[in-house]
Amino acid sequence: MKLYFRPSLSRTWVMPLWLFWFFLLTGSSFAQTYKVSGVVTEAKTKETLVGVPIQIKERSANGVSSDETGKYSISLPKGEYTLSVDYMGFEKKQVKISLTKDMVQDIELTQTTIGLSEVVVSAERPDANVSAPQTGIQRMEIQQINKLPVLLGERDIIKAIQLMPGVQGAGEGSSGFFVRGGSVDQNLILLDNVSLYNASHLMGFFSTFNSAVLRDVTLYKGAMPAQYGERLASILDVQQRNGDNQKYHVEGGIGLISSNVSAEGPIQKGKSSFMIGARRTYADAIARLSGVEDAKNAYLYFYDLNMKLNFALSDKDQLTLSGYLGKDKMVLKDAAEMNWGNKFLTLGWNHTYNNKWLSRTSLSYNQYDYFAQMEMGMDLKGGSDITDIGFKHEFLFQPTKNSQWRFGLHSTHHDLAPGDFEMNSEQQNSVNLHHRYSLENGLYASNQIKLNDRLEVIYGLRLSAFMALGKGEYYTLDADNNVLDSTWYNAGKIVKTYWNLEPRLSAAYKLNKVSSLKAAYARTVQNMHLLTYSAQGTPFDRWTSSSNNVKPQIADQVSLGYFRNFADNMFEFSVEAYYKDMKNQIDFKDNADFMGYDVVESELLYGKGRAYGIEFFLKKNTGRFTGWIGYTLAKSEKKIDGINEGRWYNAFQDRRHDFSIVGMYELNQKWSFSAAWVYYTGNAITYPSGKYQINGKDVMYYAERNGYRMPAYHRLDLGATCQLKKTAKFQSELVFGLYNAYGRENAYMIEFRTNTKNPEKTTAYQYSLFTFVPSVSWNFKF
Amino acid sequence: MNKSINIYKLIFSGIVVMLLFSSCEKEIDVDLRSVPPKVVIEGIVKLDSLARVRVSETKDFSDNSGYPALKDAVVKIWDDAGNSETLVQDATGWYVADVLKGAAGRTYNLSVTYDGTEYTSTSAMPPFVPIDSLTMYKILVMDYALPMVHYTDPVGKANEYYRAMVFINGKQHPDVHELAFSAEFMDGSPMHEILPIFTNDEDVDPIYPDDEIEVEFQCIDKGAYEFFKTLGDIGNSLANPTTNIKGGALGYFSACTSDRMKIIAKW
């Protein structure tokens, strides 16, 4: 379900005409009118379509668009009418109605085929690039993602998102990403509106998103609308698919290292549906079968379970229950075991009051945890978890066709358990670190309004209130961050509340039919902070919340862009520049230790940050050949007392140049090909400035943080899809992939140490992970 | 708790092998900027041994000419029992005491003056704790067994921190990280510490059957523990280890006890 009201702007509305219509509508409410309403769906998949413009042929001034749930509704005087839909990607449709009483008229649209390419079910207006007022947004449909080349046969939305300008992968194979100079933890990753604390599997080589069960992905790179908050840099909003409420389907894929299967269908035909999905890797089992000695006593896998149930309680009420369970497991027999994962369950209720008011309510339970156990002489076991209970309530109010309001409240209770460890030798010892409790609240209002046929804006305000709560011990620190004193707070007692007002504004000004200028300003606030040494993040990193010592991170971002479409929206071009100013940025003291201690605040240093850059994007949307070119020129810096003598220094995620070129070509009905090439400047990194000797061994001497840069990274991936069989009942395809096609040895890590062959020398070693990774997988659907 | 980090690293390297990722290693040239040298001090007062101090300085990474000891440093050590001595440099470059020997329970002070700058430190020698036994422990996924040291942490705060050095056929392996342990959370317990001996060399295991493994086991104070712990983790932190020397030098000063035990590697 997309959160945007997208009136058709392909038609030129003029303000007076619009006012006239408004008066006509209000005036006509005195006369006898009837309502026609219904749902717009895609004929085959029954997927609801959002933002589809519906015109009344007999009254050219009248028209509506389907809302987030695919519903539309319009009131008209008694009479004969033709509902007309002309929406890109679908066959034109006209439905004649005779309006003598309130009636329901559902509209089914059939996808058209342009050339040989499969048409994407898109909720976007075709010229959205130019006309939509939201700036800094990237949307991707799953069908588009499915065409991209893959690593190890796994389609992955996060890897696809990383190919967009302004978004950078955190490293080889990583599911972490940096948005406009922000760190990995500054991205809020939502799956069905629930925040995931760790969106990666297998140390990042896979993301938690099984693309078979997803509907679409939206990434806000900065000027996010007011209904989003809680993170500084971006929002990745991923939605699971609704099941087909008419027919049963099963689809799946079998790959070299993983397989997935999903099923969907009606629970009660036409009224309710289910969708379930499962995915599991078995690389370790394959390695064992093929006789790899090291794999014999080790297990390593992950699995995902996804679920979404959808019930239409009435034509005004819709209930959804969605859930996710993911787990990674690593076992070294007789030595160690660890596992980690996310799980959540969320219940949502959408209620339509009338054609102007809609409400959405959800309640969610969400947990991330990890557990580690080691049995080597002594037993050490334990782990950490984060448990959230969240409530969201939101009203959508669409007083007129050109204005949509949104009011809402979010409230999440966080319970951070940073560590409970048990150590057994002959006697038992345990360490139980204090939980940190907090309540994160957001209250917001926003309005998307088309002021005239040139100017459309989204403006809003979010009030965030973060409360650090008892029970727990909170510390008073001295100037050097040493603990002076501590205070115990009882359960529910408020330790500190941070109030922040976050204004948001995004506007599009149409220069003409094919080009526009967009500008945006946004303030964002973040109260949950990830403490990690690794840029990609590891499952064992510690999250901490704002407290009496840790202040909320605050960012102000301005951006300005020029957008132009060519050749009847076949090509989209955009250039966007941004500047981001960040306060209360966190970095660590040298040798900071976050594991096993209550007081992490004493290990932290605070300062400010700034990031700026310019993003170019050229995309070909239609035809046999589609694809895009993205280029980002950017900088991201920090200035923190206690690091590099308080000078500005490059943030780890600072990258000067970032290119991505993606091409997809449909050769014929059977074969399609894809290729993606990426190039980026290496990250800022700490290298030694010299060396010395301790205990007869070489030790590196570090004089500055992030003073150097990794070698540049580049890689070409190729993919091919062969459609094996396509009937109405069954279809299957073979997907071939070649990751890193020209075998570039990209630096994953550079280590400075004693030379392995000659201990009298020190040498820099470069490690690289993937060179030439071929893959094949077989996907089916029936 | 740092052990869990070590184990995570161990397992991570494990999976990299398992997944058959074509992880490849190659030597590269990196142009590193030269910085002014910094003084490095290693000060050791071992139980019943003469105090010894080495003063050297940092070198450029590309300079493979060794780490010569600095001459003309004035090195003094005194304890809380009224003993004091100025150490004299011997032929190996170490400044060595003539009479001052380590005694358990005493606190030692170090002063090193070099090129007009004075560097000072203090370290207290904890009571002696012996090794109970030494065994070899084989983790199934590994090709060779690792030594495991067994000892009993005495009740009380006087002994909390330990350090182990492993000599394989009389030599320390250059790839083996410093190993420091804390009994902070396990006061008064019998301890069984596995000593992770890993190397960067894929072709040669660090331990083969019938190798002679000797472990030197030290009780150290908190300052020395912080240094060796953070030195052991330098590959992760990319930061200079936390030193207990004041005045701006790198290195450590440790008054420690020492026990040694040998085992012939078998598994």
Please give a structural write-up.
- The complex is a heterodimer of chains A (782) and B (267).
- Mean pLDDT of chain A is 84; it is low at 1-31 and 113-124.
- Chain A has 782 residues and is mainly beta.
- Chain A is globular and about 95 Å long.
- In chain A, the strands form eleven sheets. Chain A has a 22-stranded antiparallel beta barrel. In chain A, strands 9-16-17-12-13 form a five-stranded mixed β-sheet.
- The longest helix of chain A is centred in the N-terminal third of the chain and has 14 residues, at 15-28.
- Chain A contains five helices and 51 strands.
- Chain B has one domain.
- Chain B is built from three helices and 16 strands.
- In chain B, the strands form two sheets. Chain B has a twelve-stranded mixed β-sheet with strand order 12-11-14-16-2-3-6-5-4-7-8-15, covered by helices on one side.
- In chain B, a hairpin with a 6-residue loop joins strand 9 and strand 10.
- The model of chain B is unreliable at 1-22 (pLDDT under 50).
- Chains A and B meet through helix 5, strand 24, strand 26, strand 44 and strand 45 of A and helix 1, strand 1, strand 13, helix 3 and strand 16 of B.
Q: Strand fraction band of chain A?
A: over 45%
The largest sheet of chain A, given as strand count, sense and whether it forms a barrel, is: 22 strands, antiparallel, barrel
What structural class do you assign from the helix and strand content of chain B? mainly beta
For the record, give the distance between the C-alpha atoms at the N and C termini of chain B, rounded to a whole number: 28 Å
What's the alpha carbon Rg of chain B, rounded to whole Å? 20 Å
Largest sheet of chain B: 12 strands, mixed
Q: What form of chain B results from the Cα inertia axes?
A: globular
Number of discrete helical segments of chain B: 3
- Counting H and I runs of at least 4 residues, what is the number of helices of chain A? 5
* Oligomeric state of the chains in view: heterodimer
- Kindly report the average pLDDT value of chain B: 88
- The rounded distance between the terminal residues' Cα atoms of chain A is 25 Å
Please give the number of β-strands of chain B.
16
* Protein chain pair with the most extensive contact, residues per chain: A-B, 89 and 82 residues
